[in-house]
Design goal:
The complex is a heterodimer of chains A (137) and B (134). By secondary structure, chain A is mainly beta. Helices cover 0% and strands 58% of the residues of chain A. Chain A contains no helices and 10 strands. In chain B, strands 1, 3, 6, 8 and 10 form a 5-stranded antiparallel sheet that branches. A 5-stranded antiparallel sheet of chain B has the order 2-9-4-5-7, with no helix packed on it. Classes of the chains: A mainly beta (137), B mainly beta (134).
Chain lengths: 137, 134
């Protein structure tokens, strides 16, 4: 576990509310977020706010760097989407998890492997660390 | 307002979108375990979609440490959630507000009260952390 360190890193959250759409089309909830500073994603977890429904429902949910580099992913199945409050841990690929100043972050669900949900939503919590930075005015 | 210092604390927000319409006891976040320590300073809800319940909705929303230590709580009412943007202030118990590395955070509606039939809020939890080793 991290110790306090006066010259260490800061951990910050990015929270995104994700309503699961019906159908199997690809969807992006965040497209090309470009904060303009570097960071490294440490964990990604969803928390169900509205229980999922839909026979054999399944969606792959991803956090991307750029258009195609998978940083974190999970296959959300109907059984994982209930009850409310349940945690959905994503698998983070540490080798891809560092964003440089100009990198962009996207949260999406591709159509491949999708079987339609008819209801469901979750709060996505991305925890990342950053180093202290100069203020650019 | 806090002054700027080179080696001070950093304030971070945790934002959650919370439906008001669930019945009975329900958890919106169960056992979030970030793996680092922090201290909650304030918790505030902001109405995103106004509630309805014939004026009688009333639920107790809580931020917990572990299974039962109440860190922040607010009784959410119809009157307090009938206008979009309205702030819902939570009472924070400072003595319970520090989470250690392995502590877990849960957000729930306690059992009891009167159900809402509509409404959502954005919950903003502000916490303080100190710089940490990697």
């Amino acid at each position: 576990m991290p110790r306090k360190s006066p010259f260490g890193v800061v951990r910050v959250e990015k929270n995104v509310y994700i309503p699961i759409p019906s159908g199997t089309s690809a969807v992006e909830w965040v497209t090309d977020w470009t904060p303009g500073y570097g960071f490294t994603i440490e964990s990604v977890t969803g928390y169900i706010t509205t229980a999922g429904t839909g026979t054999n429902a399944a969606r792959v949910i991803r956090v991307l760097k750029g258009t195609a580099t998978v940083v974190a992913t999970v296959t959300l199945l109907l059984a994982d989407a209930t009850p409310t409050g349940k945690a959905i841990p994503f698998t983070v690929t540490a080798a891809n998890a560092t964003y440089l100043d100009a990198d962009v972050l996207t949260v999406d669900s591709p159509s491949a492997g999708a079987t339609s949900f008819t209801a469901g939503a979750f709060n996505l919590t991305i925890v990342y660390r950053q180093n202290p930075q100069r203020v650019s005015l | 307002m806090p002054r700027g210092v080179a080696v001070g604390g950093v304030r971070v927000e945790k934002n959650l979108y919370i439906p008001l319409t669930h019945t009975g006891a329900v958890e919106f976040v169960t056992d979030w375990t970030p793996g680092y320590g922090f201290t909650i300073e304030s918790v505030t809800g902001y109405v995103a979609i106004a509630s309805t319940s014939s004026g009688s909705g009333s639920r107790t929303c809580r931020v917990l440490k572990g299974a039962s230590t109440v860190v922040a709580t607010s009784t959410i009412t119809s009157d307090g959630t009938d206008t979009v943007g309205e702030a819902i202030t939570f009472t924070v118990t400072d003595a319970n507000a520090t989470f250690k590395d392995t502590d877990k955070l849960t957000v729930d509606f306690a059992t009891g009260g009167t159900d809402f039939t509509a409404g959502y809020m954005n919950l903003v939890i502000v916490y303080r952390e100190y710089k940490q080793s990697r």
